[in-house]
Each structure stands twice: as structure tokens, then as C-alpha cells.
UniProtKB/TrEMBL annotation:
UniProt superkingdom: Bacteria
Keywords assigned: ATP-binding, Nucleotide-binding, Transport
A single GO molecular function term of this UniProt record: ATP hydrolysis activity
Name this protein carries in UniProt: ABC transporter related-protein
Domain ABC transporter: 2-238
Pfam families: ABC_tran (PF00005)
Keyword Ribosomal protein annotated: no
Keyword match Acyltransferase: no
Length: 248
């Protein structure tokens, strides 16, 4: 479903991705871990064509994003739902408007059909009846759920999550993780999660990829990652900070 080949990206002299290669199969859930500032969000943005690489390629369903024009890119992007860091809701819009504004552009849907779709996804994220609330009235965990509802209303084939549990307490994080699993299983979506929350990574990843020094340094099942004796992996999963000089 997703194939990344030798992806390289720099911003000025700052090399972020230095030859990233991996595949995600259809229906698989993959977690990308790595230190803060290591390029995880930059990598996610390449998957959806929001950033273009200096070299290398991203293939979605065998289509190379780098060769597509803007209209073709929009078609490929419609396969994706994305939950951004901080949920990225519009504060002046209600929950229903935040979730439904993209649907309004779709021809052929009546107001009643849009309302039904919105209430269906709000049920799915366990926020029924919150259509008329404003994001400012919601807790951090609820805002994430609204962001997730917006990400899945199109019935995407792939959902990307950028730090879905950052800033949430462990109980709320746990409920968001369970929701991500439910969405994966019910909608049969391919799932890619970027996180530095190791508890989430263990729960969500059928496979975990470690992005380190601009490359996929390690790839394995949660068990392989957590039992690894590799010193970089061991220090990362146990939350021991690695001296910066190790990276550059
Ligand atoms: N558009 C941009 N222009 C210049 N530099 C950028 C841009 N986007 C990201 N960067 C830089 O790329 C580096 C990697 O950022 P990125 O957000 O991908 O890290 P991350 O691994 O997701 O970190 P975190 O876990 O803290 O979110 C950072 O140094 C960031 O400042």
C-alpha cells in the first residue's frame, strides 16, 4: 500500500532524511518512533505529498507521488485520513462543522445525509450528541476524538496519526489508543502512527520502525524492539537520553 524508497530531504544544510526505505502492507499498522526533531513528521508529510523529497520516491498503491500533477495528488490524498498533532480544529466552528466542512464540497449529498454521516462518526469516536459544541468546550482527549472523526468521515484506506497521545494523561491516552485500534479493525484501514510514547507504540504497532540519524535504523515487532540488546534501541525504549553528539 505504501512504499518509501531511499527518501532524502534536507532543509538548507540540515539533513533530515538520509535514505529512508520501508513498506507498509495493506491493512497493516506500523508505528514510527524516534527522537524529537528526528524527522518523523517530515516523513509523514512526504507520504501524503505535502512535502516532496530531494531524491527517492513514495509510492501509494504503486503510484509514484513525485510524478503526479496537483489534480492526481488530490485523488491520491483522498485515500488518506490524517490526525494532526493538536487535532488542528477550527475554534470558531462547531464540532459538526469541523467534521463536515469537507463533505459540503461533495456534490450530491443532502444536508440530512451529511448530518447522518457526522452523527455516525461521532458515535464511532464515542462523542455522540456533541455536534453543536465548540472545540474550546472540549477536553484535549475529546478534541483528538473530533480530529479522528474528521479523519475517517471519508472512509479512507490509510489513516496517518501524528503523535495522537502527546499531551494527554495515561488514562485518556489509553482510550485514544483503543479507539485507533477500533478504527483500524472496523474500517480495515492501513495505519501509520508517529509517536514517542512507547506504551502506545507497543499497543498499536504490528511493526515498529525506528527512525534514527535519518534512516530506518531498526524494524521489528514490539517484542523484538523491546527485547533488543542494540544499545541505541535499548536506550530509546527505556527512555534514557542519548548524547546529542551521537546523532551528528
Ligand atoms: N518546513 C520546514 N522547514 C525547515 N525545517 C523544517 C521544516 N519542517 C521540519 N523542519 C525541521 O526538520 C526537523 C525534523 O522535524 P519533525 O517535525 O519531522 O521532527 P519529529 O521527529 O516529528 O519531532 P517531534 O517528535 O518533536 O514532533 C526539525 O529540526 C524541524 O525544525
Amino acid at each position: 500500500m505504501i512504499e518509501v524508497r531511499n527518501l532524502r530531504k534536507s532543509f538548507g544544510a540540515h539533513k533530515i532524511l538520509e535514505g529512508v526505505t520501508f513498506k507498509v502492507e495493506s491493512g497493516e499498522s506500523v508505528v514510527i518512533i524516534g527522537r524529537s526533531g528526528g524527522g518523523k513528521s517530515v516523513l509523514l508529510k512526504h507520504l501524503i505529498g505535502l512535502l516532496s523529497p530531494d531524491s527517492g520516491s513514495v509510492l501509494i498503491d504503486s503510484e509514484n507521488l513525485c510524478t503526479l500533477n496537483e489534480r492526481q495528488l488530490i485523488r491520491v490524498r483522498s485515500k488518506f485520513g490524517m490526525l494532526f498533532q493538536g487535532a488542528a480544529l477550527f475554534d470558531s466552528l462547531s464540532v459538526a462543522e469541523n467534521i463536515g466542512f469537507v463533505l459540503r464540497k461533495q456534490k450530491g449529498l443532502t444536508d440530512g445525509e451529511i448530518r447522518n454521516k457526522i452523527s455516525e462518526v461521532l458515535e464511532m469516536v464515542e462523542l455522540p450528541g456533541t455536534e453543536n459544541k465548540k472545540p474550546s468546550e472540549l477536553s484535549g482527549g475529546m478534541r483528538k476524538r473530533v480530529g479522528l472523526a474528521r479523519a475517517i468521515i471519508y472512509k479512507p484506506q490509510i489513516v496517518l496519526y501524528d503523535e495522537p497521545t502527546t499531551g494527554l494523561d495515561p488514562v485518556v491516552s489509553d482510550s485514544i489508543d483503543k479507539l485507533i485500534l477500533r478504527v483500524r479493525d472496523q474500517l480495515k484501514v492501513t495505519t501509520v502512527v508517529v509517536t514517542h510514547d512507547m506504551r502506545s507504540a507497543r499497543l498499536l504497532g504490528q511493526r515498529i520502525l525506528m527512525l534514527h540519524e535519518g534512516k530506518i535504523y531498526f524494524s521489528g515487532t514490539p517484542e523484538e524492539i523491546f527485547n533488543s540488546t542494540d544499545p541505541v534501541m535499548h536506550r530509546f525504549v527505556n527512555g534514557i537520553s542519548i548524547p546529542k553528539e551521537h546523532y551528528f
